[in-house]
Design goal:
The chain has 270 residues and is an all-alpha fold. The protein is 64% helix and 0% strand. It has twelve helices and no strands. It is globular and about 55 Å long. The N and C termini lie far apart (62 Å).
Length: 270
């Protein structure tokens, strides 16, 4: 029998996470009210903070599911505090996903929490642990698009509406990419328990390069076009237009205004 000594701090929400939530709330209020003189900067802070919050919740979902599946070590590792600095690799988990948002406007999944799989029995439990993260992105996307598909946009300021559209784009792209059955991504983690030992051993060396391979494929124009066509189709089904997501990205990149690179059409809409 295994005995675990749990400290209250193992599950107490981290001040770091609460600080990120505070930035999201204040900047979201500034976008909604038009309080900020430079709305674009407020949109940047709001979307970036919300994106980091979703990354934290993504990893928390993995850890929490693992805890209930038998891995009691996740608490001592700080994974239940929602503190992004506790992740296996903060650079991969937070910094790189934020940089990809800034550079490419895409929700690329990051690094992860370390789950002690040996403590967990049952293939379904392993699959559920891997699926918990992308399902969190799906839930986040549903929340972001709720005003659109519910027809509840009356009274929602346009800058806030565009910010929500872009944030929804990030969540949808993250959910799709992370669900791909590619080694190193959660989609492969879902099917891995059901593969033979021989296949798992053969695939294991490629796991560190899975995310890089996906990123490289997205640089191919045909693949990139097909991917974003699918993303746009999903968002249209949720009531979000391609114009709204595009202008949301344009507003997010507030620094383009300094160089005269912002889209004039989006400027007219805003």
């Amino acid at each position: 029998m295994t005995t675990a000594f749990r400290r209250p701090s193992d599950r107490r929400v981290s001040p770091v996470f609460l600080g990120i939530v505070a930035v999201m709330a204040v900047s979201g209020w500034a976008v909604w009210t038009g309080f900020a003189e430079q709305t674009g900067f407020a949109v940047f802070l709001f979307v970036t903070a919300a994106w980091i919050v979703s990354l934290c919740l993504h990893e928390y979902a993995h850890a929490r599911t693992a805890l209930h599946s038998g891995d009691i070590s996740v608490g001592a590792k700080g994974y239940l505090t929602l503190n992004p600095l506790k992740y296996t690799h903060a650079l991969l988990s937070i910094v790189l996903p934020v940089l990809f948002v800034i550079m490419g406007g895409i929700g690329l999944p990051g690094g992860a929490v370390y789950i002690e799989r040996g403590r967990i029995g049952g293939r379904w439990k392993h699959s559920l642990i891997s699926a918990a993260g992308p399902l969190t992105n799906v839930l986040f996307a549903v929340v972001c698009t709720a005003p659109f598909w519910l027809g509840a946009l009356d009274g929602v300021p346009l800058p806030f509406r565009l910010a929500l559209a872009f944030l929804a784009l990030l969540q949808v792209t993250a959910a799709i990419l992370n669900s791909l059955p590619v080694p190193g991504l959660d989609g492969y983690g879902v099917i891995e328990p059901w593969l033979s030992y021989r296949i798992r051993r053969q695939v294991e060396p490629f796991a560190p390069f899975g995310l890089i391979a996906v990123f490289a494929l997205l640089w191919i124009p045909e693949v990139n076009g097909a991917f974003f066509d699918a993303v746009d189709a999903l968002l249209r089904g949720l009531g979000v237009s391609e114009v709204e997501t595009y202008c949301g990205l344009d507003s997010y990149r507030f620094w383009q205004e300094w160089f005269g690179d912002q889209d004039p059409g989006c400027a007219l809409i805003r």
